[in-house]
Amino acid sequence: MLTVVGIYLDLTKAFDTVNHEILLYKLQNYGIRSIAYHWLKSYISNRQQYTVINNVSSCFTHVLCGVPQGSTLGPLLFLLYVNDISRVLPGEKVKLFADDTNLFISGLDVNTLNQKTH
Question: What is the pTM assigned to this prediction?
Fold first, then answer.
């Protein structure tokens, strides 16, 4: 009998935690170079944000990590950032959708699953 374990991850503020240096490194490894690389680097670099509550604005602060949310590129950049997560457990099924990750580990019995995770 086959035993399957499903692990469902929903990363809190996942888009806000993307390390720019790691993302840029991965983009180069995916073959994104030259003009496209510099355009994407410019897109995520030197960003600032502020908050307004009851018509009172905070000071601007530099955004040191993360990808822009509510944009078309934000989810795509995040997926490129986490795309290699399946290398953690080779041979297992990992399903990615934006910041939701589902991991399915299967084996003939519980002992087999235990060996795969250690």
Answer: 0.73
